[in-house]
Automatic annotation (TrEMBL):
Positions that bind ATP: 15-22
Protein name: Anhydro-N-acetylmuramic acid kinase
Gene that this polypeptide is encoded by: anmK
Provenance organism: Cypionkella sinensis
Entry keyword set: ATP-binding, Carbohydrate metabolism, Kinase, Nucleotide-binding, Transferase
Gene3D superfamilies: 3.30.420.40
Family, per entry: Belongs to the anhydro-N-acetylmuramic acid kinase family.
C-alpha cells in the first residue's frame, strides 16, 4: 500500500476518572509513529466535574448533556489553543453513556464547533460506527498500541496494560504487517483496577486513592477471596469482552469484614490477579508487560503484578513511552488513520464484524 503524507496531529482524551483533559501531539503517516510532540494537561474544576457527572448515563436531547458538552468544549478549546503546528485534531470527548448492546454510545463535545473555533479539521465521534457494526466501541487504543510496539522495535509478542478505573490489555504480535492482520492483536478489559480501591478509600477514609499503594502494602491479601473472585463467569468468557466500572460491586461486599489495610491489599491483589488470568487468553505467551495508566503509580499493585505474571512487568516509561499521555496520543494517531481512510478497530479488538474506520471529520 502506498504510504500517505505524514501529519502533525493533536489528540485529546477526557477519561472516566474525570480529572481533566490530556492533549498530546504526534506525527504519523497513519501507519507508523514518526515523532512524538509536546503534551499538556488541563484539570476540570470541581464545578465542571459536577456538571459532567450530572450528565452521566444521559443521552443527547437531555439538557444536562448539553451543559456537560459546553464544559467539555470550553476546556478543550482552552487546552488546544496552547499548541501550535498541528494540522489536525483528534477529539475523543467525554463518554457520558455507552450501550454497545443497543448499538449506541455518546461522547460529549461537538467536533464541528471545535473545528470552527480552532480553524483546523477535527476528527471526532470515534466509537459510533464500531457499535453500529456490532462492536463494543472500545477499546480503541489497541491500533495505536500496535504502532507503539513498532516504535519501540519490539520483535516478540508483548502486552500493554492500561490500569485506569477498569483494567484493559492489548496483546500484540509486532511481527504482523498491520494491526488488522489476523493474529496481530487481542484486546479486552481485564477486570477491575483502581475503581474499587478508590471507592474503598472514599467510603472508609474519605480519601480519593491509596497513594502509592501504601495502605495495601501494610495489609494482608485474603487469597481465598482473590481466588473466589476469579471463578466468576467474566473471567472464563472468550475475548473480546468489556466491563462497566461497577460490574463487580456485589462481590466487593465480601471485603466489608476485612480491616482497611487488608481490604486494600485484597482489592489490589484482585486487580493484579485478574490481569494474570487475562494472560491465559493470550494466543502466545509474552516476555514483557508494559503498564500505563494511573495504577502504575501504585507500588503494591505493581508488586502484585510482578508476583502473579510470568514475565517482566514494568511501567511503560522503561520503553520510552509516556504512560500518562498514551490515550491522548492514541486519538491523535487514530485521527490520522480516519483521515487516510484506514481502519481503527477490528474483530479482535472490539468484536466488530469486520475491520472498520470510525470517526467523522469536521472541517472549518
Ligand atoms: N500515585 C498514585 N498512587 C496510587 N494510585 C494512583 C496514583 N496516581 C493515580 N492512581 C490511580 O489511578 C487512577 C487514575 O488512573 P487513570 O488516569 O489512568 O484513569 P482514567 O484515564 O480516568 O481511567 P480510564 O483509563 O478507565 O478512562 C486514580 O483514580 C487512582 O486510583
Ligand atoms: C466507552 C469508553 O469511553 N471507554 C473508555 C473507558 O476508559 C478506559 C476504557 O474504558 C476504554 O475501554 C475506553 O477508552 C480507551 C482510551 C480506549 O478506547 O482504548
Amino acid at each position: 500500500m502506498a504510504k500517505q503524507r505524514a501529519l502533525w496531529v493533536l489528540g485529546t482524551m477526557s477519561g472516566t476518572s474525570l480529572d481533566g483533559v490530556d492533549a498530546a501531539m504526534l506525527r504519523t503517516d497513519g501507519h507508523d509513529i514518526l515523532e512524538f510532540g509536546p503534551d499538556a494537561y488541563r484539570p476540570y474544576s470541581p464545578g465542571e466535574q459536577s456538571t459532567i457527572r450530572r450528565a452521566f448515563g444521559q443521552w443527547p436531547g437531555d439538557p444536562q448533556v448539553a451543559a456537560a458538552a459546553e464544559v467539555v468544549e470550553t476546556a478543550h478549546a482552552e487546552i488546544l489553543a496552547r499548541f501550535s503546528g498541528a494540522e489536525m485534531i483528534g477529539f475523543h470527548g467525554q463518554t457520558l453513556a455507552h450501550d454497545p448492546a443497543h448499538g449506541r454510545t455518546h461522547q460529549a463535545g461537538n467536533g464541528a464547533l471545535l473545528a470552527q473555533a480552532l480553524d483546523l479539521p477535527v476528527v471526532w465521534d470515534f466509537r459510533s460506527t464500531d457499535v453500529q457494526m456490532g462492536g463494543q466501541g472500545a477499546p480503541l487504543a489497541p491500533f495505536f498500541h500496535f504502532a507503539c510496539a513498532k516504535w519501540i522495535k519490539a520483535t516478540e509478542p508483548l502486552a500493554i496494560l492500561n490500569l485506569g478505573g477498569v483494567g484493559n490489555i492489548t496483546w500484540i504480535d509486532p511481527s504482523q504487517p498491520s494491526p488488522e492482520a489476523p493474529g496481530a492483536l487481542l484486546a479486552f478489559d481485564t477486570g477491575p483496577a483502581n475503581a474499587p480501591i478508590n471507592d474503598l478509600m472514599q467510603v472508609r477514609l474519605g480519601l480519593t486513592q491509596d497513594a502509592g499503594g501504601a495502605l495495601a502494602a501494610s495489609g494482608r491479601v485474603d487469597e481465598k477471596l482473590v481466588q473466589a473472585f476469579l471463578t466468576q463467569a467474566y473471567f472464563h468468557k472468550i475475548p473480546p469482552k468489556s466491563l462497566d466500572r461497577n460490574d463487580f460491586q456485589p462481590f466487593f461486599k465480601k471485603t466489608h469484614r476485612l480491616s482497611n489495610a487488608d481490604a486494600a491489599a485484597t482489592l489490589t491483589a484482585i486487580a493484579a490477579a485478574a490481569v494474570a488470568k487475562a494472560a491465559e487468553h493470550f494466543p502466545q505467551p509474552i516476555t514483557r508487560l508494559l503498564v500505563a495508566g494511573g495504577g502504575r503509580h501504585n507500588a503494591a499493585m505493581m508488586a502484585q503484578l510482578s508476583q502473579r505474571m510470568n514475565c517482566i512487568v514494568e511501567p511503560i516509561e522503561t520503553a520510552g513511552l509516556n504512560g500518562d499521555m498514551l490515550e491522548a496520543q492514541a486519538f491523535a494517531y487514530l485521527a490520522a488513520r480516519v483521515a487516510f481512510g484506514l481502519p481503527t478497530s477490528c474483530p479482535s479488538t472490539t468484536g466488530v464484524a469486520a475491520a472498520v474506520g470510525g470517526g467523522q471529520i469536521s472541517r472549518p
